[in-house]
Amino acid sequence: MDAEADPPQNPITRHKCLACYKQYKKKEHLIEHMKTSYHSVHQPRCGVCQKHCKSFESLREHLTGPLPRGICSKIFSQQGCQLCLALFDSPGSLIDHRKICRISAPTCPGTSALPYIDSQFDCQDFSDENHAGEGPGGAVAMDCEMVGGGSDGSLELCARVCLVDEDERLIFHTYVQPEIPVTNYRYDITGLTEEHLRNAMPLKEVREKLLQILHNGESIGKVRLDGGKARLLVGHDLAHDLDCLKMNYPDHMLRDTAKYRPLMKTNLVSHSLKYLTRTYLGYDIQSGTHDPYEDCISVMRLYKRIRSQLHPEEDHGTMTLSNNIVGMPDSWISRELDNLTPDELYAMSRSDYKCWCLDLIPRLSA
Fold first, then answer.
1. Does the keyword Cytoplasm apply (predicted)?
2. What is the rounded CA–CA span in Å between residue 230 and residue 218?
3. Across 102-127, average pLDDT
4. What percent of the chain shows pLDDT beyond 70?
5. Could you give the CA distance from residue 115 to residue 113 in angstroms, rounded to a whole number?
6. Residue that wins the pLDDT comparison between 27 and 257
7. Which terminus of the chain has fewer CB atoms gathered within 10 Å of its CB, N or C?
8. Would you say 73 and 48 are in contact if contact means Cβ atoms under 8 Å apart?
9. Listed residue (200, 205, 208) closest to 182, CA to CA
10. How many other CB atoms sit within 10 Å of the CB of residue 100?
11. Cα 157 vs. chain centroid, distance in angstroms?
């Protein structure tokens, strides 16, 4: 008789992440990956293969980059929107979508046309059906233009402030009198001259008006705690604007397109507002003199577009991986997590940033 054939060797078991499809030889490597990846339903995902990506830039590379994913790239080229990266089931649906997804640039009134505007709107402005579900205070977008101070003109001084609401109405605009002399008006960028700031509003008064609008009649303590009826502040690189205004606003009330994880580069460096507007809205800004009204409109449109994404609901009663493992013995942690399936590991994972789609969930009143 022939010698008994050797039994076939078992193939190496691969442990696959259900979110990004990375595979690991050892279960503990998958577990470590899940602890640090923060996968969730809020991450940008490919409409074809459902792969999770950490940013829209990495998703765009996956679909249209130098080395795109084969089948995903082919389907997306026929059924996908180049701006919002959504996938549609028919050419007709895609054509209809493109008509509303690509937005025209706002008409800028120009520097001289806006000497001073204060709409004096109050809490009732956000109480109608157009803002239902967006939180008690809604959101306003802010942009500032800076001139230079100091001997070399390198000190950033706020010289102009603009605010718009979610309906793109201009609700506040003023020129600002800096607290120290201006040595560089940066005219090519700002379009500002000495004449614009001659009778401008003092910085302290500007700050008081801005906080009055943002606080929306709410106490400072309530704003810092959970926001209450205060308004969300939308902008690009808000830390810079707030610093030049010498103004504080709670981090949880800021919506910054320069710092929002999915809008950043894959190396977590910020994109410019000019790039984000061209890439996600489909028009160009800042082609000449910067206009804060145009920037306000653009940053509000970006915020609303990202906020309007439809994501599955999470079970917020389930704790995150990081919370589950704090203070537990290493042996227990390893043994406990080793027993979980990839599905269960993914179910425990949560984002390390707050998705803007959650702003459409009304804040609970105390």
1. no
2. 6
3. 65
4. 83
5. 6
6. 257
7. N
8. no
9. 200
10. 7
11. 26
- Whether 258 contacts 354, CB under 8 Å: no
Can you list the positions of beta strands (E) in 217-347? 232-235, 254-256
What is d(CA 22, CA 42) in angstroms, rounded to the nearest whole number?
19
Q: Comparing C-alpha atoms, which of 86, 142, 102 is closest to residue 255?
A: 142
Q: How far is 342 from 304, CA to CA, in rounded Å?
A: 34
Pair 62, 266: CB distance under 8 Å:
no
Separation of alpha carbons 218 and 222, rounded Å: 7
The mean predicted confidence, pLDDT, of the chain is: 85
**Please, what is the Cα angle at 228 between 224 and 233, to 5 degrees?**
70
Structure confidence by residue, pLDDT tens digits, 55-99 = 999 999 999 988 777 899 999 999 999 999 999 998 899 999 998
Mean pLDDT of 326-351: 72
Surface-to-core class of residue 141, CB atoms within 10 Å of its CB (0-12 exposed, 13-18 middle, 19+ buried)? buried
29 and 36 in contact (C-beta within 8 Å)?
A: no
Give the Cα separation of 111 and 339 in Å (integer).
64
18 backbone dihedrals φ, ψ, rounded to 5°: -75, -10
Tens digit of each residue's pLDDT (9 = 90 or more) over 162-173: 999 999 999 999
Residue with tokens 């306003």: 140
Whole-number Å distance between alpha carbons of 280 and 264:
13
The DSSP secondary structure of 315-328, one letter per residue, reads -TTSPPHHHHHTT-
Q: For residue 7, what pLDDT band results from cuts at 50, 70 and 90?
A: low
Amino acid identity of residue 125, one-letter, is D
Name the strand (E) or helix (H) holding 140. strand 139-149
pTM of the entire predicted model: 0.86
330 CB contacts (<8 Å, ≥6 apart)? none
pLDDT(125) > 90: no
- Provide the 8-state DSSP code for 41: T
Beta bridge pairs of residue 176: 201
* Structural domains in the chain, sorted by start: 111-122+134-308 (3.30.420.10)
The total of other beta-carbon atoms located within 10 Å of residue 218's CB is 19
What Å distances lie between residue 118 and 20, 212, 258, CA to CA?
Answer: 48, 12, 27
**Rg of the chain's alpha carbons, rounded to an integer?**
25
